[in-house]
Amino acid sequence: MSENSFSRELRLLTPTHFENVFQQAIPSVSPQLTILARFNQLDHPRLGITVSKKRVRKAHDRNRVKRLIRESFRLNQHRLLNTDIVVVGKSGLDKMSNEQITQLLDKLWKKLTHRCAQSQLG
Fold this sequence. Notes:
CATH topology: Ribosomal Protein S5, domain 2
Radius of gyration: 14 Å
Helix content: 40-55%
Order of helices and strands: HEEEHEH
Number of domains: 1
Largest sheet: 4 strands, mixed
Distance between the termini: 32 Å
Strand content: 15-25%
CATH class: Alpha Beta
Number of strands: 4
Strand order of the largest sheet: 1-2-4-3
Structural class: alpha+beta
């Protein structure tokens, strides 16, 4: 596996994987995005994305947002602990620029890493 790839093994693929994260999640929240994480038994993080049509109406906006989330995860995966992560898009996300979304994700990854490290200690 190359250092910054986004291969199949880095994705949450089944509804069971998503439900598992939702059960006992460590949150990192903003008005436009919520990131939920739960420790896994693997040696790497995995990502799942949910951006509903109700929250982001246009398909090209949903695709743009998901592409930005995947790219941000790909670049930050080496800093994240071995967790399963679900990124949930909220209303207003489609009004943000690519740069704003990227900055928001960077901030939320840091917050999530900090909270996961704290919960591992405690």
